[in-house]
Amino acid sequence: MTLSTTNETLPAFTKLELRTAYGPVYRDVATTPPRECLPEEIPVIDVSRMFGDLKQRKSLATEIRAAAENTGFFYIKNHGIDEATIQTAHEQAKVFFHRPESEKQNVSRKKSKFFNGWLQRQTGRSSPSEALDNMEQFGWCYDPKYDPESKDLNAIPEDVKSGLQGEDFVWEGTEHLPNFKNDCIRYWQANLQLARRLLKIFALSLDLPEDYFDKVTTYPGSDSAFNFYPGVSSESIAKRSEDIGLGSHTDLQCFTLLWQDMNGGLQVLSKDGHWLKATTIPGTLVVNIGDYLMRLTNDRFKSTVHRVYNRSTADRYSMPFFFGFNFNETCGVLPSCVSAEEPAKYEPISCGESIRLRFKQIEESTTVA
Ligand SMILES: O=C(O)CCC(=O)C(=O)O
Ligand SMILES: [Fe+2]
């Protein structure tokens, strides 16, 4: 079944199937067209205070906590990643996706043990209720070789090693693209630095010491992707064809930092089941909470459903960065999120295992090879 927004005979709400680590869940979703979000639904938060004194950091933490408990989505400005680093990565994404298909096959995700490399368009289906994702992706996972907090590669603990998912074939197969690897890694490093800094604010927002998560983010889930949503023809826009860019889903790790270009197209599901447009605000990144952090906070912070449409003739690009804990580190619900009245709802689990369970569900339910 596909969702339509134009047919007047449609019911006001339809059922949307979503994937989780523990099997499908269903949401009632309005069939009315998406509306612009209100500032209180997806607020813009000035994070320059994370570079300030403790009082400023705490005031930032209070704002982030409110947004994380509400929609679980917010924009951040003054985040410290310089515009040139972003634009260079964006240019490299454009170069990569416009290479011939035969060349992109050299870094196909089919060669990956994990989620590295190029994913062809129309191969994934994020939500079983929606069409195939009309998106291409190039992704790469955390590799300690490039961590800006430099690592002694000979001293990585064995249990950490088992959770590492970086793979060199993505760089070997793109060696012919001038500066491609450097520009990708530079952008990834900037995101990783920002994510580690923001996580300290998240710790404060959960009434924990700022360095609480430091020891579980020494080799963290830090996966970058370039997403490419090809422009569509004016005929299919006129017909409001239901080709989805990226189907409805929640993100998996602690939080995501997302740069999106000016085309727009990101939509966020409100608590009452209406789609909200998360329109691009220049100079900002979108931050959203993922399933693992929702679990660790006993559902206090919200991992919210979102999707993408590109209903424009222009190509759309976005660059998400997914941040979590060391994949081998088993963590339970945080002490500040449990009480006699609110006992822990979840068993301890590692970030790596919770991702593995989610992808296992996808493999079991996917009909497309
Ligand atoms: O492309 C976007 O704007 C969002 C991407 C996204 O949700 C994802 O990659 O998980
Ligand atoms: Fe997402």
- What is the H/E order? EEEEHEHHEEHHHEHEEEEEHEEEEH
Which strands sit side by side, in order, in the main sheet?
A: 4-5-13-10-15-8-7-6
Q: Which structural class do you get from the secondary structure elements?
A: alpha+beta
Gyration radius, to the nearest Å? Answer: 20 Å
Write down the domain tally.
Answer: 1
At the third CATH level, what is the topology name? Answer: Jelly Rolls
Helix content: 25-40%
Bin the strand percentage: 15-25%
> CATH superfamily assignment?
B-lactam Antibiotic, Isopenicillin N Synthase, Chain
Q: How many distinct beta strands?
A: 17
Which CATH architecture? Answer: Sandwich
Bound molecules: 2-oxoglutaric acid, fe (ii) ion
Could you name the CATH class?
A: Mainly Beta
- Output mean pLDDT: 94
User: What's the N-to-C terminus distance?
Assistant: 20 Å
- Largest beta-sheet characterization: 8 strands, mixed
How many helical stretches? 9
Overall 3D form: globular
* Weakly predicted, low-confidence segments: none
GO molecular function: metal ion binding; oxidoreductase activity
Domain Fe2OG dioxygenase: 216-325
Pfam families: 2OG-FeII_Oxy, DIOX_N
Protein name: Fe2OG dioxygenase domain-containing protein
